[in-house]
Write a structure and sequence with these properties.
two-stranded antiparallel ribbon, 123 residues, mainly alpha, single chain, 52% helix, globular
């Protein structure tokens, strides 16, 4: 079943039931997944970078925030900051994140399927 169909069906369920289903599936999939073997999320998608992320990462890299933004970021069609290169500029050849300790909040929460309210997002 395509992801769109799954999200559509989840959106039709009561929030609590949809959350239980999605959280159970999330746990099962991630128990069997080695992210370092894949890293497709880092190779094909750019997370939304929040102002707090910019501050934290720039400080970690010992560079001014404006320089970090100029070197790595662009505004997307929704006026949100994203990395302008794919794969992620901080993805090493061994699929490790070189800024893992200070990675963007969106990366830390990825793939966003284990949180409550998933049916509301799909709607």
């Amino acid at each position: 079943m395509k992801a769109e169909k799954i999200f559509y069906h989840l959106a039709q369920l009561e929030t609590e039931k949809a959350d239980n289903i999605s959280q159970r599936a999330h746990r099962e999939v991630f128990a069997a997944t080695n992210c370092l073997e894949c890293a497709q999320c880092c190779k094909g998608y750019s997370p939304i970078i929040l102002e707090e992320d910019i501050e934290r990462i720039a400080q970690h890299l010992n560079m001014p925030e404006h320089q970090f933004a100029a070197n790595y970021l662009m505004l997307d069609e929704d006026d949100e900051w994203v990395f302008y290169t794919q794969p992620c500029p901080f993805l090493a050849n061994n699929n490790h994140c070189t800024i893992y300790e200070v990675r963007p909040a969106s990366c830390a929460d990825y793939p966003h399927t284990g949180r409550s309210g998933l049916a509301d997002i799909a709607d």
